[in-house]
Amino acid sequence: MVGFPLYWYAASWEGTPTARPTGTLSQLEEEVVLEGIYQGVVALDPRMVDSETLWLARVIYSETKRASEQELVAWVVRNRVETGYRGERTYVGTALDPLQFSAFNRSNQRRSYYAGLTAFAGAPGWQEALRIAYYVRHAPSERRPFSITTRHFYSEQSMKGRLHPEWSEGRRPIAPPADFEIEPRRFRFFDDIA
Fold first, then answer.
1. What's the CA angle centered on 123, arms 74 and 145, to 5 degrees?
2. 135 closest CA partner among 53, 14, 52
3. Mean pLDDT highest for which of 21-25, 32-36, 168-172?
4. Per-residue pLDDT tens for 62-83?
5. CA 117 to CA 115: how far, in whole Å?
6. Could you say which DSSP state residue 170 is in?
7. What pLDDT sits at residue 3?
8. Which end of the chain, C or N, has fewer beta carbons within 10 A?
């Protein structure tokens, strides 16, 4: 696990599991808690969300509101961070890398909205994006749904004035794993783009 915050979980007054800071958890306990967060049976306490997880959530939420798509987009962003793509090794640096994620381009009118989302924001679907971002950041690398060199995607729906970006010319998208329901016109993922 990568820097998993240490918390214990207890039912709140409403019966929903919530996180409380504590000292140490075994690796097995951490994995159980992380899986609970992933499955949505353990609530993600907003106090557990650090700035890097917040930036990952902002990127995936800006790209799509669908959970299965958000998870794959999150893995692409994690791949970029872990491989130092374009020299960026942080989630904030990756998110704000010029011309990489359209919502964070300086000319985008929605940039301040997405950049201003906090762990406590109540926008529809935002808490789900936070949960997915938290899970992907802390998941073991063997949970990665495709190669670590899968660092690119695009959506035909967001392309303005053309069907695909120049970097995808002559390249075939990779098939998402079978357990992810992705419409090809919504998202296409690419491996080994320099």
1. 15
2. 53
3. 168-172
4. 999 999 899 999 999 999 999 9
5. 6
6. T
7. 44
8. C
- List CB contacts of 19: < 8 A, sequence separation 6 or more: 7, 8, 9, 42, 43, 44, 45, 47, 48
Task: Give the pair of three-digit tokens for residue 101.
Answer: 């994620």
Given a cut of 80, whether residue 117 has pLDDT beyond it is yes
Q: How far apart are CA 179 and CA 100, in angstroms?
A: 27
Residue with tokens 């798509």: 69
Q: How many Å apart are CA 37 and CA 130, to the nearest integer? A: 10
**CA 23/CA 13 separation, integer angstroms:** 23
Work out whether strand 150-154 and strand 188-191 pair parallel, antiparallel, or are unpaired: antiparallel
**Residue 137 has what DSSP assignment?**
H
Q: Which amino acid is at 173?
A: P
Amino acid identity of 95?
Answer: A
Distance from first CA to last CA of the chain, Å, rounded? 28
- pLDDT tens digits, one per residue of 124-145: 999 999 999 999 999 999 999 9
Residue 21 pLDDT: 45
Helix residue ranges, H only, 48-194: 51-63, 67-83, 91-96, 111-115, 126-138
**Which of 4, 80, 75 is closest to 44 using CA atoms?**
4
